[in-house]
C-alpha cells in the first residue's frame, strides 16, 4: 500500500511573507521533524538552511515542490514554544517569520549559500577526519575565506552543508560573525596515564623505576589519587594540568620528565568558554523588613496577576529580592530569564548572581563570540546545567523549555526596543508574551517606571508593589539645580563647569571619594564650525553634522560611520578659523584631566567599551578605586552600584528636555533620576549637581523632589489630551528611497490610502529631524489607534495599502518599514 508523500513547510531566512513547502524524500521521512534545520534549494542556484515549521500531506497546487536535500540536526534545534513565540512576533510586529528566524538564531546556527566560511588556521584535529571532511577543509584552507557555493562547485558535492556543519562543531572553520574577533577554541591542558602504563603490572614497574626520583614518584601518586586509581581500577581518566601541579606542589619540569618517559600523556581538551565555577554557592542574604514586605507582596501579586511591577527606588535592594525569587524557582526545577537593558550592567549583576547560583547561570549577549552564544543555546536545548539566563533583549529567543519567571530589570529603558533590523520588537512586551506561553510570571522592576507600565498597574492590569525606602536607611541624594545662564552672566563658569560643581568635586576627592559626570554625547564636540563663514561639516551620506573625535583627529558620522580627517582650513572660505562647538564625553575627560592632574580620570561610552572586556575592565577599575572621576553617557545611569561615589554632576540637562519627541520629558526624568541614584551609599548622603538653563522646569523640579507621582500625572494628562500611549497605540511607517521626489510621492500616496480607512488618525507624511541617512531620503507616517480598535484588522489594512504601492513599478525599490509601538 502506497503512503501519501510528506511535505514540510519551511521557514527560510528571507524577507518574504510566507512559508515555503518542500517534499520530504522517503529516505528522510524518519529524520524530518518540526524544529529541525534542513538544507533546501531556493531559486536556481542558492542553498539555504531553514527550520521545519509544519509537516503535512497537502501537496501545493500552484507550483511543483522541490525535495529537501538533507536534514542537518539529530534533534530539533527550535522547540514548539519558540515557534509559537516567533509566530506572535511576526504577526504583532508586522514582519516575516524569516526575519524573526534570522534575528533569533546565533549566526553559527544559520547557514546559507552566501555565508562566508573562514578557515581556522589554529585547528588541530583530535581524531581523523573523513575523506569528504578533508576534501572540504582543504578547499576552505586553500581559499582562507569562501562561500558554500564555492565549496559545492570545487568539491563536486551536491550539498556541502552537513559537512561544513561538522567542521564548525570541530572548530575547524567558522562563519562570518567570527571575523569580529579572532576565534580560537578554548582549551586546557590535561594529564592522563600513557597507554603503555594503563595496566597494574606496567604501573607497578613504573613505581619501582621511580624509586630514585622521589619527586616524580610523589607526583605520580598524587595523580593516581586524583583519578581514584589507588583504590579502584586503573582508568584513562585525565586531570587538568594546573590542578595537578597545585595539588602535588610540583614543577612543570617534573611533568615534562614523566611525559618524556612515556608515563604521562599531555593533551588539550576543549572546555566550555562560558564555564562558570561550581564552587559551593552562597545562600541568599536575609531580607530586611521592608524587602520582605515587598517580596511577600510580589508573591501575592503573582496569585492574581501574570505581571507584577516593582517600583523600587535606586539602592532600594531590588536585586536581593530578585535573588530570593530566582532561588525559589530553581528549587522547583524551573528556568528563569533575567533581562537587562545594557551589556554594561551584566558585569556587576553576573558577578553578584554567580556567588549564589554558580554554574546554574549562563550569560547571553552580543559581546560574546558567536560560538559562545551557540553553546548557551545548545546547553538550554539539551536541558543541561543552565537554569538561570542573564542577558539582554535577544535572550528572549533562547530555547527555554520550563520557564517559571522572567525578570525585566530597569523595565523603562528604551534599549529594550530593537530598532534595526526587523523585527522591531520590545523585549519587555515580548517577555510578557513569552512568559504567558509557559504559564510563567513576569516581574518588571525599576526606580522610574515607564508611563505605560505604571498606567497598567494603576488600571489593575498588573499588580503593583512599591519599595520606596533605600536599603539600610541610606538617604536619597540631595539634588541641587544650578542655573548655568546666571553663572555665565556672572562669568563664573570654568569651561563647562559651574563653581558649585567644582567645589563639591574638590571636597569629595580630598575625602578619597569618587565622582561621576554625566554627559549624554560621545565624542569631543557635536560639530565644528568655521568662525569666519559659519560653515559646518556635514556627512556626505546623511543630513547631519559630523561629530569631532579628537583621539582619532577625525570627524565621524554617528549614523553611517563615515569619517574624514579634521580639515585645517574651511573648505568653503579657506579660513583657518575652524572651531569646535558644544562638548561631548571626550572633551570633558580632557578638561577634567587638566583640572585634576593628580587624579585618574576615565570615560565610559561606546568608544571606550567596544571590546568584550571593555566594560568589565573599566567598571573593575572604578570599583577598586583606581579611577577617581568617571565620565559617561547614559550607560553609567543603568543600575551600576559603586559604594564610594558621593558626587554626581549632570552637565547639561537641557539637551534631553528639548528633544522633539512626546517621550522627551519622561526620558529626561528617568535618566536624571537614574544618574542621581548613583550618588550616596552606606553612611553618606550623595549630592547631585544638575546644571541647567531652566532650574524651574517642571521635570527638573520633580527630579529634585523625588516626586514620581507628580511627574506621572502631568505626563498622563498630556498623553490623553494629544492621543498618545497609554491611551492610544502607535504605528510608525518609515518610507525610504535614494531619490527624494520618489520618497515624497510614495509617502503621500500611502498617507492618502490610509486616510480613506483611518481618517484623521493618520499623521503625516513628514520629514524627521534627520531626513537623509545613508543616502536614503526619509518620510514618516504615524497612525494612532484607539486601544479598543482591533490591531489585527488595522495591520492587515495597512499591509494591503503598502503591498498595492510596492506592486507599482515606480515604487518597486521604495523601502517601507513598519514599527509597531515605537519607543
Automatic annotation (TrEMBL):
<dbReference type="Pfam" id="PF17764">
    <property type="entry name" value="PriA_3primeBD"/>
</dbReference>
<keyword id="KW-0378">Hydrolase</keyword>
<dbReference type="InterPro" id="IPR041236">
    <property type="entry name" value="PriA_C"/>
</dbReference>
<dbReference type="InterPro" id="IPR011545">
    <property type="entry name" value="DEAD/DEAH_box_helicase_dom"/>
</dbReference>
<dbReference type="GO" id="GO:0003677">
    <property type="term" value="F:DNA binding"/>
</dbReference>
<dbReference type="Pfam" id="PF00271">
    <property type="entry name" value="Helicase_C"/>
</dbReference>
<dbReference type="Pfam" id="PF00270">
    <property type="entry name" value="DEAD"/>
</dbReference>
<dbReference type="GO" id="GO:0008270">
    <property type="term" value="F:zinc ion binding"/>
</dbReference>
<protein>
    <recommendedName>
        <fullName>Replication restart protein PriA</fullName>
        <ecNumber>5.6.2.4</ecNumber>
    </recommendedName>
</protein>
<feature type="binding site">
    <location>
        <position position="573"/>
    </location>
    <ligand>
        <name>Zn(2+) 1</name>
    </ligand>
</feature>
<dbReference type="InterPro" id="IPR040498">
    <property type="entry name" value="PriA_CRR"/>
</dbReference>
<dbReference type="Pfam" id="PF18319">
    <property type="entry name" value="Zn_ribbon_PriA"/>
</dbReference>
<keyword id="KW-0413">Isomerase</keyword>
<feature type="binding site">
    <location>
        <position position="557"/>
    </location>
    <ligand>
        <name>Zn(2+) 2</name>
    </ligand>
</feature>
<feature type="domain" description="Helicase ATP-binding">
    <location>
        <begin position="299"/>
        <end position="467"/>
    </location>
</feature>
<feature type="domain" description="Helicase C-terminal">
    <location>
        <begin position="565"/>
        <end position="720"/>
    </location>
</feature>
<feature type="binding site">
    <location>
        <position position="542"/>
    </location>
    <ligand>
        <name>Zn(2+) 2</name>
    </ligand>
</feature>
<dbReference type="InterPro" id="IPR042115">
    <property type="entry name" value="PriA_3primeBD_sf"/>
</dbReference>
<feature type="binding site">
    <location>
        <position position="539"/>
    </location>
    <ligand>
        <name>Zn(2+) 2</name>
    </ligand>
</feature>
<keyword id="KW-0347">Helicase</keyword>
<dbReference type="Pfam" id="PF18074">
    <property type="entry name" value="PriA_C"/>
</dbReference>
<dbReference type="InterPro" id="IPR001650">
    <property type="entry name" value="Helicase_C-like"/>
</dbReference>
<dbReference type="GO" id="GO:1990077">
    <property type="term" value="C:primosome complex"/>
</dbReference>
<comment type="similarity">
    <text>Belongs to the helicase family. PriA subfamily.</text>
</comment>
<keyword id="KW-0238">DNA-binding</keyword>
<feature type="binding site">
    <location>
        <position position="570"/>
    </location>
    <ligand>
        <name>Zn(2+) 1</name>
    </ligand>
</feature>
<dbReference type="GO" id="GO:0043138">
    <property type="term" value="F:3'-5' DNA helicase activity"/>
</dbReference>
<keyword id="KW-0547">Nucleotide-binding</keyword>
<feature type="binding site">
    <location>
        <position position="560"/>
    </location>
    <ligand>
        <name>Zn(2+) 2</name>
    </ligand>
</feature>
<keyword id="KW-0067">ATP-binding</keyword>
<comment type="function">
    <text>Initiates the restart of stalled replication forks, which reloads the replicative helicase on sites other than the origin of replication. Recognizes and binds to abandoned replication forks and remodels them to uncover a helicase loading site. Promotes assembly of the primosome at these replication forks.</text>
</comment>
<dbReference type="GO" id="GO:0006302">
    <property type="term" value="P:double-strand break repair"/>
</dbReference>
<keyword id="KW-0235">DNA replication</keyword>
<comment type="subunit">
    <text>Component of the replication restart primosome.</text>
</comment>
<dbReference type="InterPro" id="IPR041222">
    <property type="entry name" value="PriA_3primeBD"/>
</dbReference>
<dbReference type="GO" id="GO:0006270">
    <property type="term" value="P:DNA replication initiation"/>
</dbReference>
<keyword id="KW-0639">Primosome</keyword>
<keyword id="KW-0862">Zinc</keyword>
<feature type="binding site">
    <location>
        <position position="530"/>
    </location>
    <ligand>
        <name>Zn(2+) 1</name>
    </ligand>
</feature>
<dbReference type="InterPro" id="IPR005259">
    <property type="entry name" value="PriA"/>
</dbReference>
<dbReference type="GO" id="GO:0016787">
    <property type="term" value="F:hydrolase activity"/>
</dbReference>
<dbReference type="InterPro" id="IPR027417">
    <property type="entry name" value="P-loop_NTPase"/>
</dbReference>
